[in-house]
């Protein structure tokens, strides 16, 4: 099968997200200028550089109470900071609650029953029980082609890791089984890993 996106795919559901999988989930916590807090998952998320460490996430779509975007991007525009919380398999239901199209005054931490703790290097909360979290200072927001598509880039200024998942000096993801996004309404959990050596190593 071949299709050009501009002409449609002819399938019952859009296959694009099912092709680009699995995708890590960036559970983005932000705080608005007024002190309101927001927590939302984004599967267009990844790390993009080592030195300095940098990450990105993309927000698509808009809410009627946020003009041209969603709460996360609107808050980052105001404060310039955000935190990426990593989603463990055990937190999948709470993560799903925070994905709802809630009004801007909704505090997703409270709605999902999640404890929060203050970040160290930025003025923002993070998910207390997350296996890892990346505190970030926004470096750039790029408007992408299309309606309400924004790419947010940030430099990591602080890294939290749960000591229970550090084994022999390595961060062992099988201990908390990170959640990843597939296509449609599907998710996957990392339960085992394998290693490959690069040529010449």
From TrEMBL:
Matching Pfam families: Flavin_Reduct
SUPFAM superfamilies according to UniProt: FMN-binding split barrel
Cross-referenced InterPro entries: Flavin_Rdtase-like_dom, Split_barrel_FMN-bd
GO MF term (any one): FMN binding
Superkingdom: Bacteria
Domain named Flavin reductase like: residues: 18-173
Xref: PANTHER family: BLR2425 PROTEIN, FLAVIN REDUCTASE LIKE DOMAIN-CONTAINING PROTEIN
Protein name (Swiss-Prot/TrEMBL): NADH-FMN oxidoreductase RutF, flavin reductase (DIM6/NTAB) family
